[in-house]
Amino acid sequence: MDALELIKGRRSIRRYRPEPVERDKVIYCLEAARWAPSAGNRQPWEFIVVTEPETRKRLAEVHRWGRHMAEAPVVVVALADPSRDPSYWQQDLGAAIQNLMLAAYSQGLGTCWIGVSGNPEYEEKFREILGVPSHLRVVAAITLGYPAEAPSKDRRPLDEIVHWERYGRRQ
Ligand SMILES: Cc1cc2nc3c(=O)[nH]c(=O)nc-3n(C[C@H](O)[C@H](O)[C@H](O)COP(=O)(O)O)c2cc1C
Q1: How many CB atoms are closer than 10 A to CB 147?
Q2: Nearest ligand 1 atom to alpha carbon 11
Q3: Is residue 12 part of a domain?
């Protein structure tokens, strides 16, 4: 699939079919995350793969906008070690998560990015449930599974967000 086709075709999926995701597909997605660009190649990321229904249910109960973690057969929790890169860990993690999601889509899987680090209460509860040590940040959870919906979304047009050469120059 062409790169733009892949990027534009991916949608956030919040309804999943019950069948499990093959382990090699999960590894494929994690491999894509591992090869994301990283400032100074410091790679401040780690990942927890959660498939246990009881754990997914507990995570879903914590997060108001992450209830679909209970239904998705896999939840990948993305962690950051800010001591590896205090300045750029957030950008690195964003790149890794996007890689993971696009790789998943290329395998026929649906994903949804669920932000965690923006809410201290969610982050603390995720930390407790998953036993994450205190030097790591819980950045996001990504649900993974075969989609049971096909939602549509739009984006702001290019001419509204792009400036040529200087701010405000539209062409
Ligand atoms: C940093 C970040 C946090 C997000 N957090 C949530 C979330 O908590 N729950 C959720 O259902 N979707 C979440 N999303 C997904 C967005 O809602 C979604 O990407 C957006 O509506 C555009 O839809 P699309 O991904 O289908 O193009 C998040 C996305 C990002 C990038």
Answers
A1: 18
A2: 26
A3: yes
